[in-house]
Automatic annotation (TrEMBL):
The keyword tRNA processing does not apply. It comes from Phocaeicola coprophilus DSM 18228 = JCM 13818. It comes from the Bacteria. This is Transposase IS4-like domain-containing protein. The keyword Transmembrane applies. The chain crosses the membrane at residues 99-117. It holds the Pfam family DDE_Tnp_1. GO terms for molecular function: DNA binding; transposase activity. Keywords: Membrane, Transmembrane, Transmembrane helix. One of its GO terms (biological process) is DNA transposition. Coiled coil: none annotated. Residues 6-85 form the Transposase IS4-like domain.
Length: 147
């Protein structure tokens, strides 16, 4: 390839092609790593893609639009709390018998977090427990009383 100033660029690359068994597709990867084994490069791309999916999941479910503090430590704490919350939801999602999307589970957790609820029971049988939760909520006095 030639740049506007006349400089010629030479890039050496190789294409690694393999069949993705899960998706039944032929996948081609472009790399400039000439020494590594093709299976190692395929594994690196898989791990890299998992990291990209994790970042997407965090951005969708825990948007960090603004930070609560200005110091580097405050920002680090907020990011760590987000990562821990994401990890806890992933563990909970694996233990549930009912199938949930991660976004749906995160939304339901956000809605019910301040209630005294057995989350495993609620998320495994939401129809039954949601009605119970609403009944309890409607019976509570909304106005605080000092007497």
């Amino acid at each position: 390839k030639m740049l506007k100033d006349g400089t010629i660029l030479n890039h050496h690359a190789r294409i690694i092609t393999y069949v993705d068994i899960k998706k039944h597709k032929l996948v081609s990867l472009l790399t400039n790593d000439m020494e590594s084994d093709p299976n190692e490069i395929i594994e690196i791309y898989h791990k890299r893609w998992e990291i990209e999916l994790l970042f997407k999941q965090i951005k969708q479910n825990f948007p960090l639009k603004y930070f609560y503090g200005e110091s580097a430590n405050a920002i680090k704490i907020q990011i760590w709390v987000t990562l821990i919350a994401n990890l806890l939801l992933m563990v909970m999602k694996k233990k549930l018998t009912r199938s949930w999307s991660f976004s749906g589970l995160a939304t339901m957790m956000r809605i019910t977090l301040m209630y005294y609820v057995d989350f495993y029971s609620l998320f495994n049988h939401p129809e039954k427990d949601w009605e119970t939760l609403l009944d309890v909520r409607q019976k509570e006095d909304c106005q605080l009383s000092i007497f």
